[in-house]
Write a structure and sequence with these properties.
- The protein is mainly β and 156 residues long.
- The protein contains one helix and eleven strands, in the order E-E-E-E-E-E-E-E-E-E-E-H.
- Helices cover 8% and strands 53% of the residues.
- The chain has a six-stranded antiparallel β-barrel.
- The termini are far apart.
- Bound molecules: zinc ion.
- Zinc ion (ZN) binds next to loops.
């Protein structure tokens, strides 16, 4: 019988895996698995073989309500006003009122102004990840480039 246990990954990408049979704990650094498979096969010194499901924390999402606009890049031709509902270093969620034909995989350019002191204007290229009702979830195309810029805002 295959045993699967869940292990919650800490913010520093370490995890404590506990053998389901002998209960002996083992610490592991699992940062390299963040973007890969979250299932690990482990053999405990007690000979028990089990699967660990690594539960990674989502990036912190800041809830917002910022007006903005979008323009579709691929396919082109769509555009309109949006409300940015959440922002993280990896992506953005917005709502759209009125008819739209956005689908997973579409590439968009979003323009909006942060509600920080400097009223920072941002234009971000994103890929649509999910569309649920009028809520559109997107991830940034170039994630690294925005870490610094948005990092400060997300701490605020
Ligand atoms: Zn064991």
């Amino acid at each position: 019988m295959e045993i699967t246990v869940k292990a919650f990954v800490r913010a520093d990408d370490t995890v404590t895996i506990v053998c389901p049979v002998c209960k002996s704990p083992k610490n592991a650094a699992v940062g390299a698995f963040r973007d890969k498979s979250h299932y690990l096969k482990v053999r405990c010194p007690c000979e028990t073989v089990f699967t660990v499901h690594l539960e990674f924390r989502q990036h912190y999402r800041k809830l917002t309500d910022l007006p903005g606009t979008f323009r579709s890049i691929n396919p082109s031709g769509m555009g309109g006003e949006i409300h940015i509902k959440d922002i993280s270093v990896s992506g953005i969620g917005f709502t759209f009122s009125g008819m739209h034909f956005l689908e997973k995989g579409h590439t968009l350019s979003l323009s909006f102004t942060l509600d920080d002191k400097k009223k920072t204007k941002l234009t971000k290229e994103v890929v649509v990840q999910s569309v649920i009702g009028d809520f559109v979830g997107c991830r940034f195309v170039e994630q690294q480039a925005y870490q610094k810029e948005l990092g400060f805002y997300l701490k605020g």
